[in-house]
Design goal:
elongated; 5 helices; about 40% helix; 60s Ribosomal Protein L30, Chain: A; about 15% strand; alpha+beta; four-stranded mixed β-sheet
Length: about 170
């Protein structure tokens, strides 16, 4: 008996729900009208020029001061070198998150061992000067290439002068 009552109630509810169904309208409403809101073009938010932390940005900020030059068999920082290193120190003070390497170089004269040692002394003297200006020593790595990476390949005084250097290079 319970199943008959349940079946009757189920049919009655289905019939009641079917009676509530909606009929489709005879005509559809019109499509919505597209309105355009005038917008003012926004300037690009991306900076122009090299990104901070790149060698190009560093070189653009300090100019030719990324490299200092030395006399023959010398590793002392002279007044011209001091000005270049002061420009570097100001840059590194603005960007304390950056680390960099000072590469020491020598000209082609002398033995490989002598030039490696001289390049290291040049890089360390540049580092010491930057540290004296407030740059944290932990941000500076030092490497010597001696005569192994010349920028000028001739064997004359002009080329040798270009190769006796300490160059600051950002670490990416």
């Amino acid at each position: 008996m319970n199943t008959k009552i349940a079946t009757i109630l189920l049919l009655a509810s289905a019939t009641g729900l079917a009676a509530c169904s909606k009929k489709a309208p005879e005509t559809l409403p019109p499509e919505p009208v597209q309105t355009t809101i005038p917008t003012t073009p926004t300037p690009p938010t991306t900076p122009t020029g090299p990104s901070v932390g790149t060698q190009a940005h560093f070189a653009g900020a300090v100019g030719s001061s990324t490299t200092i030059y030395f006399d023959t068999d010398r590793f002392n920082v002279d007044s011209q070198d001091a000005a270049a290193l002061q420009a570097q120190a100001q840059y590194f003070a603005r960007y304390p998150q950056l680390t960099f390497t000072i590469e020491g170089h020598a000209d082609e004269r002398g033995t490989r061992e002598y030039n490696i040692a001289l390049g290291e002394k040049r890089a360390n003297s540049a580092k010491a000067y930057l540290v004296s200006l407030g740059v944290d020593a932990n941000r500076i790595a030092v490497v010597s290439y001696g005569k192994e990476r010349p920028v000028a390949l001739a064997s004359d005084e002009a080329a040798w002068a270009q190769n006796r250097r300490a160059a600051s290079v950002l670490i990416n």
